[in-house]
Each structure stands twice: as C-alpha cells, then as structure tokens.
Design goal:
Helix content: 25-40%
CATH architecture: 3-Layer(aba) Sandwich
CATH topology: Rossmann fold
Largest sheet: 7 strands, mixed
Organism: Streptomyces spinoverrucosus
Keywords: Hydrolase, Signal
Distance between the termini: 48 Å
Protein name: Alpha/beta hydrolase
CATH class: Alpha Beta
Oligomer: single chain
Structural class: alpha/beta
Radius of gyration: 17 Å
Number of helices: 12
GO molecular function, one term: hydrolase activity
Strand content: 15-25%
Shape: globular
Order of helices and strands: HEEHEHEHEHHEEHHEHEHEHH
Number of domains: 1
Number of strands: 10
C-alpha cells in the first residue's frame, strides 16, 4: 500500500478520538474521604486515579468523571496529553506517574489508551489499567492499524483537510481536526448540542505521526485491565473495541453511548474506574 493510500486509511476509520473541551490543564487533586477528620493513613489511602485524554480533546473532557471520583474520596490527576507522537506522549505520562506517591489506576480514552499502554509498561506503581472507548494496541500495532481492522468508523468523512506543519522534532506531518459542523454528530451525538458545539470549537489536533507510530510492548499483558465499550461510537466501532478488550482479557462493560462517553456518561465511566481501584491493595 502506498503512503498516500495508507494516509487515506487514517481518514476513513481513523478512530482516535477523545472529547474536546475548553482548556488544556493538569488537574491534580488529593481528596480524603468525606467522613475522615484527617488525611487517611497509608493503609487506607485510596489509589490515585490518573486520567489520559485522547485526540481532539483536553483533560477537561474528564470533568464529570473527576467530580464523581472526588466525591468518593479518590485523588485524581488529569494529564495534559501532548498528542504529538506515541512514544513522546507516553514518556510525558510516565514522568507524571513518577511524581505520584503510592499506587495508581491509569485510565485512557481513545488514543489515550495507546498512550497508557506504553506509559505503564514496567511501572510498579500502576496497579490497574482502564480503557474507555479506547485503543488497546499490541506491540507493533498503531492506532491506524487498529482503526483499519474493522468497518464502521465514519471519522474519515468528518475530518477537515489536514494542514501540513513542522512538528516540534523538526519532521513534517499533519495536524488533524474534525470539521466543526460535523463534530456533534460524529463525536458527541448524545451530548447536549450546545456543549458539543463548544467541544468542536476547542478541540485539539492530533498529528498523523502519532496515529501511525507503532506501540512498544504494552502494559496490559502484565497488568489487570478493564474496558468500557461505547456501543454507539462512530469513531472506534463497537466490534473493534470488543476485539481489543477480549484480546487483553479485560473486565468489560458495554454502555450505550457515543465516543464522547466521558462527557455523556461520566457516572458509568467513574464506576468502572472505581471497580478497578477496589482491587488495589
């Protein structure tokens, strides 16, 4: 397959989404259980939940999930995923993990799933992985490879023409965006329209380089894994999500939701993260 036709495959089933929001932020919060009069002991302290967004989004796409987790007393960090390249993005998250005390539950949405698979490899802190409508790549696979494996994604039809840019490492690539007019239906069909329109305006691009980069050895082969499958996803089809979850032997739940499940169904997302967290000792 030529490089040109391979690139066209990105634009067809490409499925590397995450919900776009209003700012890029790093949210770090440690919250004691509401019933505690002082900080919990090391023996009773809950694991820190680290959330990694995917393409066309920022960390505030997790806001509803963060609210639920904090209510239950979990320390939460929502990472600002650079979206520049898989190895670099994973290295950034790995550095973030290094600064956290105690055990971690690491969750990723969409392309963020590929990032956490690489960032958690070899980490003694990460005790559980949670994939939320996410890519779960094996070694040598890219998001592009997995997107092309199953039919059903309509993302390619919703993309704006890519704009060539010079990437930070000096290489040539393309920043990919979703057409703002097509964004609500394609990405966030079950999100209130006014919210989806704001998400469309504030979306952050992902590079084609990030989607083409092959994964290294993934952490899910040695770390307990959970997966939430969004059954109405137009970016990563249900069949693709189920294939990856079954291959990873993940504890899996299906939720009727769009790709923007972290925004439209934050309670269900928080529940599966808490299920994973309850196994951490």
């Amino acid at each position: 397959m030529s490089k040109h036709s391979r690139y066209e495959r990105i634009r067809t089933p490409l499925a590397v989404m995450a919900t776009a929001s209003v700012a890029t932020a790093l949210i770090a919060t440690s919250v004691a259980p509401a019933s505690a009069g002082k900080a919990p002991s090391l023996q009773t302290r809950r694991p820190t939940v680290v959330l990694v967004h995917g393409a066309f989004a920022d960390s505030t796409s997790w806001n509803g999930v963060v609210k639920e987790l904090k209510r239950e007393g979990y320390p939460v960090v929502a990472a600002a995923n650079p979206l520049r390249g898989l190895s670099g993005d994973a290295a950034y998250v790995k550095e973030l993990l290094a600064g956290i005390d105690g055990p971690v539950v690491l969750a990723g949405h969409s392309y963020g799933g590929a990032v956490i698979s690489n960032a958690a490899y070899g980490s003694e802190k990460v005790k559980a992985l949670v994939y939320v409508a996410a890519f779960v790549p094996d070694e040598g696979e890219s998001a592009l490879d997995l997107a092309a494996k199953f039919e059903g994604s309509t993302l390619g039809e919703a993309l704006c023409p890519p704009v060539p840019v010079t990437l930070p490492d000096g290489s040539q690539g393309a920043d990919l965006y979703i057409d703002q007019k097509k964004f609500p239906r394609q990405f966030a069909a079950d999100v209130p329209e006014n919210t989806a329109e704001l998400m469309a305006v504030t979306q952050r691009p992902v590079t084609n380089v990030a989607l083409e980069e092959k994964s290294s050895e993934p952490a899910w082969k040695t770390t307990p894994t959970w997966a939430l499958v969004a059954t109405e996803d137009l970016n990563i089809p249900r069949e693709a999500q189920l294939f990856m979850a079954e291959r990873a032997k993940a504890h899996t739940v299906e939720v009727r939701a769009s790709h923007a499940v972290t925004v439209s169904r934050p309670n269900e997302v928080a529940q599966i993260i808490q299920e994973a967290a309850r196994t951490v000792r």
